[in-house]
Amino acid sequence: MDPKSLVGTFNKKGQKIVEPEYLLFEAPRTQHFMTGSEVVKEAIRRASIDVSIAYPITPQSEAAALVGELYVEGYVGEYFRGENEFAVMSECAGASFGGARVFTTTSGPGTLRAYENFPMWAGSRLPIVINVMVRGVNSPLSIQPDTLEIGMILETGMLIWHAETAQEFLDFLLASFIVAEEPDVHLPVAVCIDGFFVSHTKDMVMMPPADIALTPYDPYRSPVPCMDMEVPPIRMMRDPFVMKSNYISYATHASWQQEVRAACERSRKHTIRLIGGLIEEENADAEILIVSSGTAVAQGREAVRLLAEEGVDVGIVKIKTIRPFPHQEVRQALRNAKHIFVPEFNVAGWMAREIKACIPDNDRVYAGPHVAGGMTMPPEVIVEEIKKVLSGRKEAVHG
Amino acid sequence: MRKRLNLRMSGLGGQGVVTSAHVLATAASYDGRHAISNPFFGAEKRMAPAESYVRIAGERIYDRGELVYPDVIMVFHPQVITQGKCYTMPFYSGIKPGGLLIINSDSPLPLLDSDLEFLDSQNVPIFYIAATTLAVEIAGTELASNMGMLGALMGATKLVSMDSMESAIKDRFGKKYVASGGTATLDEAIKKKFAKKEQLLKKNMETIRRVYDIGAEWAETIKSPMLV
After folding, report:
1. For residues B171-188, b (16+ Cβ closer than 10 Å) or e, as one string?
2. Which residues of A touch B25 (CB under 8 A)?
């Protein structure tokens, strides 16, 4: 049955099934003061989820437990705790292959433990939504936020979005299912937030009512047949021809990987429609710009406020989707900037590399400031770094 | 009124430092102000350092994470200072001039002369409040120490209204609340102390009100009370 025909009907919890555009843009919203973990619960309550699988790891444990509460209340079809993150992501694949709308959450070391599954999901065109609440992955151990893990999943073929605030997190989660399930996309989406800074932080959220829900997933809109062992991509896994070292097997793999990346690129039009663009600009005509994603942008906004008090004009460009990377939008937004600062919550500076790779005259980019291992980035640190570089007290490091 | 008020709560795991921050921020938002609160702690264990932060302003707040430059520091346990169970050394690191220190202790702690001189030079008064002793006296449990600390803060600064605080307390303790395993266990422990949930709410509010009066009285004795 076409799920669109369900619009206007009621599900077993008495929620009215509505078009995603209604849920996201038209439904009246009320104000709530809640944590990012609670945002997950409220988004999933409205998302017509068939299956959710959980495994505890800080900082996502609360969110996973709250989805369990929803299962008890009857809002989620099936929910259980997997054996570990690798098992969880494999089980998510099984449920998605079977035609279910699947949601899960993970963090830091859990993301890496499950890693093999992410390119498998993308290659199998499974529209699973995974909320990644980023956390340090290095030793010595840290449970605090560090965005290194986003840098590690960039090339898995998944769509990767990075929300700045609790509000954006809610809207991203709801939109992600719709974009993931478009037939010309049909890929997993990693909706990332910074652990603690969003997951455990109480913030104001405008929330659509609880008595409406997204149209359910329609597995028959999948561009690849569900669990059909005779047709790619499943056939690739069982059929010896692609496992051999010959030209046909290489060509098959190469073309499929290109198709997965093309599908990721094709998500743009749906994403732009549902989350209002791949980037967000504020005063982007300024000669000095702060460009980043997630909490680095939030801290950047406070730095802009502090610098404005001193008469220094600085703008902000927020990157909402890291995959697909908004090359054109970033090039356009950064065309007049003289100094581009890229603050990041990781030691590697992967976001600065992404930006440098897509703009002309990339010596305009200053990779920093950086904090790592869960350290906070006070706005004063960004202000100080900008002043140091502009006054020539600090050499811009390129590379 | 300060444009932005930054508050750092330093305590030990199990004392309700995180809960206090969320309750205070919720109360501030009931007062119609912008607020944001977040905790900071290591792998959870009782008596280990735990911190939380509240930011309150008349405008949208983006800043989050560990609070480095606070206007108010609330110390929930003497060990934060005496045993250095704190994320920042010294415990008042980053305090803004004209700020305020509220310390849960029955008597003044043996701070170094250099500490006292520095705080004095920054015009930062110290308000010692016996929050745990008062919590045991009023609510019958040391688990209400955090309520005492909130009462002390409110009395000394009038930061949030009593009505909003009561609504925030009801939000937190009046309905089912899912948090981490440790927090859930403590929630159960405190519920067992009271025959009914209403009694828990009542005793919490009683603690806040009684300590509020002490805080308000203390604020009268300060020459340049903090403007919040």
Report:
1. bbbeeeebbbeebeebbe
2. 33, 202
Class at the top of the CATH hierarchy for domain A280-392: alpha beta
Global ipTM:
0.86
Give the number of other Cβ atoms within 10 Å of residue B97's Cβ.
Answer: 9
Instruction: Report pLDDT for A399.
Output: 42
Nearest-Cα distance to chain A for B189, in Å, is 19
Mutate to test the interface with B, among A141, A142, A202 (most CBs of B within 10 A): A202
Q: A330 near A319, Cβ under 8 Å?
A: yes
Q: What is the mean pLDDT of residues B171-183?
A: 69
With contacts defined as CB-CB under 8 Å, which chain A residues touch B36? Answer: 201-203
How far is it, in rounded angstroms, from Cα A344 to Cα A337?
Answer: 19
DSSP A370: B
B185 reaches A (C-beta below 8 A): no
Contacts with A33 from chain B: Cβ below 8 Å: 25-26, 29, 35
Contact of B178 with chain A, judged by CB distance below 8 Å, is answered with: yes
> What pLDDT is recorded for position A301?
98
φ and ψ of A161, to 5 deg:
-115, 150
Q: What was the pLDDT predicted at B176?
A: 61
Fold match between domain A11-221 and domain A280-392:
yes
- The CATH number of B4-222 is 3.40.920.10
Whether the CB of A165 is below 8 Å from some CB of chain B: the reply is yes
A194-233: per-residue pLDDT in tens?
A: 999 999 999 999 999 999 999 999 999 998 876 566 666 6
Out of A366-380, B78-92, B98-112, B190-204, which region has the weakest mean confidence (pLDDT)? Answer: B190-204
Domain locations in chain B as residue ranges:
4-222
Which of A136-145, A317-326, B57-66 has the lowest average pLDDT?
Answer: A136-145
pLDDT of residue B183: 67
CATH 3.30.230.70 for the A11-221 domain, yes or no:
no
Domain spans of chain A, in order of start: 11-221, 280-392
Residue A82 scores a pLDDT above 80: yes
Nearest to A40 by CA among A169, A154, A188: A169
Tell me whether the omega of the peptide bond preceding residue A59 falls within 30 degrees of 0, making it cis.
Answer: yes
User: Across the strands, what pairs with B41?
Assistant: B50
In this predicted structure, the answer to whether residue B228 has a pLDDT above a threshold of 60 is no
Q: Cα separation of B63 and B55, whole Å?
A: 8
